[in-house]
Amino acid sequence: MKTFLNISRFIVGVLFIFSGLVKANDPLGLSYKMQEFFEIWNMHWLNDYTLAFSILMITFEIIAGVAVLVGYKMRLFSWLLLLLIIFFTFLTGYALFSGKVRECGCFGDCIPLTADQSFMKDLFLLVLIIPIFIYSNRIKPALSVRNSILILFFSTILTIALQWFVLMHLPVVDCLPYKVGNNIPEKMKAPPGSIPDSTVINFVYKKDGKEVEFTAESFPDDFDDSIYTFVKRYDKVVRKGNASPKIKDFALKTFWGNDTTAALLGEDRYQLYLFLKDDYNTGNWPSVLNLILASAQDKHIEPFLVTSIPFDNLRGKALKQFTLMTPLACDAVAIKTAARANPTLFLVKNGNILGKWAYADLDQAVKAVQALPVQTMVPATPAETMTIEPAADSSGNSSSAPF
Q1: Whether the Cβ atoms of residue 115 and residue 95 lie closer than 8 Å to each other
Q2: Which domain, by its residues, includes 222?
Q3: Were 118 and a residue from 8, 92, 157, 300 both cysteine, which residue would form a disulfide, CB within 3.0 to 4.6 Å?
Q4: Domain count, the chain
Q5: Whole-number pLDDT of residue 397
Q6: pLDDT digit string, tens, across residues 7-57
Q7: pTM for the whole structure
Q8: Distance between CA 12 and CA 69 in Å, rounded?
Q9: Among 179, 174, 170, residue whose Cα is nearest residue 364
């Protein structure tokens, strides 16, 4: 039993630490996954707290893994481990049997697991944790109390510091489809050799006040327009395929609602895209962005503001820097996936992501843009623009610019 307990402790501890570190690389990813569950359960009021929940859960997951490895206060941590794995098993089981969530986010975007894989993983961990819980009094600490506390303390500090760092500077390891080196149009296509969903057309009619449903091959023998009233038709998935592109719902639309994604990403020219959601971070990055925009103008590089904020909402409160960029509307979910920091700047050419910087790292973007060659000018074309009034400066003055 002692050997089995030691092996179980090692596996559980390593898996919890590994899982926590992978998620600590992108705590916003877990936060968005929590929001997905809360949306399904109609618990929208918790959406504002998901980032805090994410940071706490990741931190505790790593601390629990460290504690079980060093054997510190096993009675307490065995209880916490058991409660945590029961909670995780419930979530993955719900995702698997409800079919409403494809992936649980257990290992973040770096190691995507399907719902059934996540559920089996948690069942495996549950089998290992139950003996640890039952025989926790037999587990002796590997280190002294003082050393165990020091290891747990520094593990906590380092875990929180890592999460703080990536929230400001983007994930250390970028596992998202918008990472540097990827081609956006290519990632918007289904993978080669993938199988599309298999569907059948279902018809819904009303008969005697009740709705009945059937396929094109199974119309009832007594079908007649005088008996059946058409309600709707829809495609029903009978076999799920794997033809899902890595990048979904990414569309860049002009002020007038025209989709210009293919045209822009197909240009053989350097472009800058500043991805911006509402409640963006403040600081000194706008002054650094000024330098980037000035260099871009010298290089004949067009800057774009990609935002989920309605254009009309930007009027009267936009930063002056925003008014110097061509606005493009984009879905908020797509922006959250493309840009974990808010805002984030992309350098793109031919749809290829050549550079990606969080607002805290725009000084690096200045050097990158300044090192680019000067592009030949192209004839100006009528742009779909809007004019907004930027926020007044300290003197109370404001200026308008094409936006």
Answers
A1: yes
A2: 198-239
A3: 92
A4: 3
A5: 44
A6: 888 999 999 999 899 999 999 988 988 888 888 888 888 888 999 999 999
A7: 0.79
A8: 8
A9: 170
